Amino acid sequence: MVIYVRRGYGRVLAEEYAALKVKRAALVEDKIEAHSQGDLRENFGFKAAKDAIRAVDRKLDELDRFSRRNTFIEVDPATWLTKPTDFLQLGHVVRIEKEDAGTKRKHRFTFLVATYGETATDSESDIECLPHNSPLAAVLLGLAVGKPTQVELPAGPAMLTVLSIRNPTQAELDRLLTAIKPPEIEGEE
Questions:
Q1: What structural domains does the chain harbor?
Q2: How far apart are CA 49 and CA 34, in angstroms?
Q3: Of 22, 87, 130, 166, which is the most buried if we count CB atoms within 10 A?
Q4: Tens digit of each residue's pLDDT (9 = 90 or more) over 95-129
Q5: What residues contact 141, with CB distance under 8 A and at least 6 apart?
């Protein structure tokens, strides 16, 4: 799987991994301290430290698997402000018209074609993030303005027309792009 992410995601993953290693080292110290307090059968501090170390180990393993399973291509959103706009690319704001083949109903949408996982909506400009790996983005990327294109979407066949392509403003990017965070790991407290 290839994941396009904003610049800095690799650093965030490394920081998360380092923080977990520091936390594990502190828990090992707690376990050693509890071990020195006598009978291990009734030593709840020892058992709690052991369980906490196992939980951190599971998080480290999951983060390791996440990093190995995915390829990260870092994208700097600042470059989205000056991209050429001849055809739709990652980082463009696009207005489209979608006509359902069966019902002939037309819908208009405005999207920022964003990186993997971005799902925000800007209430000021009515722009929604459209992750580049979504079925709609997959058929939109590379299209030019004004060319109706027959496409097959999960909801059925449709006619898509790109009405306009433009670069986002810095204010729109600030409102739409979420802070970079490490992946959520199951069982996290």
A1: 2-75 (1.10.287.180), 77-176 (3.10.50.30)
A2: 8
A3: 130
A4: 999 999 888 899 999 999 998 878 889 888 899 99
A5: 88, 89, 90, 113, 132
